[in-house]
Specification:
The chain has 529 residues and is an alpha/beta fold. Helix content is 34%, strand content 16%.
Length: 529
């Protein structure tokens, strides 16, 4: 099947939906999502969205907190732009129906504080903020007559000059995007979507690691597509491990224990019930995530334990039950009463700070292709994301990309000479074990060798193991009918390669990249691919 659409959006989280709602007045919008439209990383965001809303806080404080967390390599102009735009974007979310919690006494937003923040500035809806934002935006998008949402459509590849027979490399000037090839996951048919403008809002790549808080569909699809299309990527070595996921080894994805709980007074403790963060940072349990995650990792290795504890009992039963109902119910379901028991925790892969390199308009190096949300590298996060800046970044860049896209869409023509996907000679692969086992191998390699703490030897070993996995998988791909599991595996392998490549190129310990063989430093230039 062939489809033509003015604006093609890949991804149905906060970035994709915000963009779709903004551009819908200027043309036909088609939004593709590889699962249910409500499924994705946005709905799992517990903590909230950071913004300066009242005079008790200031833009300068939020800017400074972001720069400190980013370890000196944020793009300052991007940081200032994003944070100063925040109040307007919050008001738009409210207009779409997002129900942020209010302070019952004053009728103002009830604000949380999280690690790395010097003030209470996190807007939230109890402890399921992302789910509330997803609900409101998805309802608004479903009501809009110019937006079509197509579920279970897996974008496989960007369509560029390469598909017209031109040899395209990363040095080819003027690479253009004409749309995407997408796999209909229910019919296994690969369709052609031609577009004037395409936005990638495909989320993260958390499942490149064996332990992650991200949903199972977070397989780095957008980053991998841009990599194959020879677009510019950056900063993928900065993989953020959330310090506190619930230790429940049989569960995937790992359940997140929001940082807002530490902001409310919860304290990290070892298996003997002793606090330990005083050994690592004067901000204790509210230090930035990279510091806290490394501290927990070190304490686990010193003790030989698989988990430590988060003690939230001092917060008080009523506040825990009313303020963190999702966490309370989840823990209770596995026999942990957080009003009386400490919560077993361990770090888990949570967020990528790098991705598709975009400018302040959200435009990538490929013409007519934009990116927003976790798959994009804007320069806001630098070496480490400040808590609750991710939803903010997504909505700001969706807005900026929408403004840029609507300004250019009338001057772009469809490329009707694009051929359909050719699957001639391919056969169905009946040995799913080849894919599932390779995926497990990949995830274990990345967790053990390219995790919270790295070294030159570990990175080299990961690269060597990955090379074998890559060759085996490409051989399978070249003779098999394309399926969702095979496509996801290829994307995960591409993302793992990029993480390792950029980690090896980064010769200073900065932000989330920490190697036993390096010293802290602030490089002048970041590696790109």
């Amino acid at each position: 099947m062939r489809y033509t659409v003015d604006f093609l959006v890949v991804g149905s989280g906060i970035a994709g939906l915000s963009f779709a709602l903004r551009v819908a007045a200027h043309g036909k919008v088609c939004l593709l999502t590889k699962g249910d439209a409500s499924e994705g990383s946005t709905r799992y965001a517990q903590g909230g969205i950071a913004a300066v809303m009242y005079d008790s806080d200031s833009f300068d404080k939020h800017i400074q907190d972001t720069l400190i967390a980013g370890d000196g390599i944020c793009d300052r102009e991007v940081v200032e732009m994003t944070i100063r735009e925040a109040p307007d974007r919050i008001r738009e979310l409210v207009q779409y129906g997002v129900d942020f919690d209010l302070d019952g006494k004053r009728g103002r937003f009830d604000l949380h504080r999280e690690g790395g923040h010097s003030e209470f500035r996190i807007l939230h809806h109890k402890d399921n903020t992302g789910e509330e934002i997803e609900r409101a935006l998805l309802e608004a998008a479903r009501r809009h007559p110019n937006i079509e949402i197509r579920e279970h459509q897996f974008a496989i590849d960007l369509i560029t000059q390469h598909h017209l027979g031109q040899w395209v490399t990363r040095h080819t000037p003027g690479i253009e995007c004409y749309g995407v090839y997408a796999l209909d996951c229910q019919t296994n048919r690969i369709d052609t979507y031609l577009s004037k403008v395409t936005l990638l809002a495909t989320g993260g790549m958390g499942n490149v690691y064996s332990t992650t808080t991200t949903p199972l569909l977070s397989t780095g699809d957008g980053v991998a597509m841009v990599h194959r299309a020879r677009g510019v990527l950056a900063d993928l070595e900065f993989t953020q491990f959330h310090p506190t996921s619930l230790y429940n080894p049989s569960e995937k994805p790992a359940f997140l224990i929001t940082e807002a709980m530490r902001g409310a007074g919860a304290v990290l403790k070892d298996r003997d019930g002793n606090e330990f963060m005083q050994k690592y940072d004067p901000r204790l349990s509210l230090a930035p995530r990279d510091i806290v995650a490394r501290a927990i990792d070190n304490e686990m290795k010193l003790s030989g334990r698989d988990y430590l504890y988060l003690d939230a009992r001092s917060i008080g039963s009523r506040h825990l039950i009313e303020g963190f109902p999702t966490i309370y119910a989840k823990c209770l379901s596995i026999g942990i009463d957080i009003t009386r028991d400490m919560i077993p925790i361990r770090p888990a892969m949570h967020y990528q700070c790098g991705g598709i390199k975009v400018d302040r308009r959200g435009a990538s190096s490929i013409r007519h292709l934009y990116a927003a949300g976790e798959c994009a590298c804007t320069g806001l996060h630098g070496g480490n994301r400040l808590a609750s800046n991710s939803l903010l970044e997504a909505v700001v860049y969706a807005h900026n990309a929408a403004e840029a896209a609507t300004a250019e869409v009338q001057n772009i023509s469809f490329r009707h000479d694009v051929p359909d996907w050719n699957a001639e000679g391919m056969v169905f692969n009946e040995e799913m074990v080849l894919i599932t086992q390779t995926k497990k191998e990949l995830q274990e390699i990345m967790w053990n060798y390219v995790g919270i703490v790295r070294s030159d030897l570990r990175l080299q070993r990961a690269f060597d193991r990955l090379n074998l996995i890559y060759r085996e998988t490409e051989d399978l791909y070249n003779r098999s009918v394309l399926t969702e599991p095979l496509s996801e595996l290829r994307n995960l392998i591409a993302c793992a390669y990029l993480i390792i490549k950029m980690a090896r190129a980064r010769r200073q310990n900065v932000g989330l990249h920490y190697s036993l063989d390096l010293l802290p430093s602030h490089p002048e230039k970041t590696p790109q691919a």
